[in-house]
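pinned: reference chain
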Amino acid sequence: MKGMKAVIFDLGGVLVNYDGYDTFTAVSEMAGISMEEMYHFYQQHDRDFGTGRLSGLDYYQKLDKAYGISGSYEVFATAFCRNQQRNEPALAFARDLQARPHVKVGIISNTNEVHAHWLRTHLPEFQQFSSVILSNEVGLLKPDPAIFKLVLSQLNVPPAQAVFVDDAAENVAGGTAVGLAGIHHTNWQLTRPAIEEWLQI
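pinned: its structure tokens
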């Protein structure tokens, strides 16, 4: 449609409240290891986890083999997701945008199978949005240009007609590098009017 625009959101820290430090804390407690050891494990495996080369069970088994885990996979998955929570006002705004006749809403999230399962269970909005791209399902991570090109293809809009909203400046830069407008999200008091202003351009 002529004049169609797209607003593309990150999830964690934007539409979903997420505390990465708490994830490390939860898993390090289950494994009986220090935060330093947990972060080292994360650095070793995060890319494979985030691109789907490691499933949730793979990740759990590697952690269990390295350190031992005091709990089943299901207990681990619950602890791993304990810090995720819907941001109700932000999701309501995204739904409102999707309902507008000349706006499409897309999602790009760097995530993993464990968090993706939680997201697909707790965010029925995914069924309403025009595109939902989770890194572990497509084998791509922000700020790879390919993931932005993929969402533009799914939304069927040119880069100049899309804005990308993320709380990580590096990811925003990845979007602007392929021609999207970018908004570095720090709080909704600034982000919401910035989106509305961009939609009027």
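why pinned: The chain has two domains: 5-17+85-199, 20-80. The CA atoms of residues 45 and 59 lie 8 Å apart.
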